[in-house]
Amino acid sequence: MDFTEIDREDFRRLLEEIAVSFMPFGKFGRKEYPPKGVPIIDLPPEYLDWFKQRGFPKGRLGELMAQVYEIKAVGMDAVFDPIRQVNGGRYKLRKQRPKRFDFE
Predict the structure, then answer these.
(1) Is residue 104 part of a domain?
(2) Which of 19, 21, 32, 34 has the fewest CB neighbours in a 10 Å radius?
(3) Count of structural domains within the chain
(4) Which InterPro entries does the record associate with it (predicted)?
């Protein structure tokens, strides 16, 4: 594996870009989780691994998803915790069931 140096400022800019990126399509996209989709920092590792095996999307989204995958793969998911705190916590991936009770 080839590791490259990244300075603190470049890493900060990368995290800022990751923080505002959402999954626009697929299982965690806008259609299933309106209005923006799931933040890419909260995509399950298994989902990112699926993309790793089959190829990340083209363009900047794919590059950012690959970075998130690498960060999570080395066990550094905690680096996203300050971003999650600012945004109100980890994104809820489990759909809420309707709370209806019919006792008749």
Answers:
(1) no
(2) 34
(3) 1
(4) QSregVF_b
**Domain presence at residue 45:** yes
* Domain extent for 20: 8-86
Contact 6/61 with Cβ under 8 angstroms?
A: no
> Is there a domain that residue 1 lies in?
no
The DSSP string of 55-74 is -PPSSHHHHHHHHHHHHHHT
pLDDT tens digits, one per residue of 73-90: 999 999 999 999 998 888
Contact status, residue 65 vs residue 40, Cβ threshold 8 Å: yes
CB neighbour class for 53 (10 Å; exposed up to 12, middle 13-18, buried from 19):
exposed
Instruction: Tell me the C-alpha to C-alpha distance, in Å, between residue 60 and each of 63, 64, 66, 95.
Output: 5, 6, 10, 28
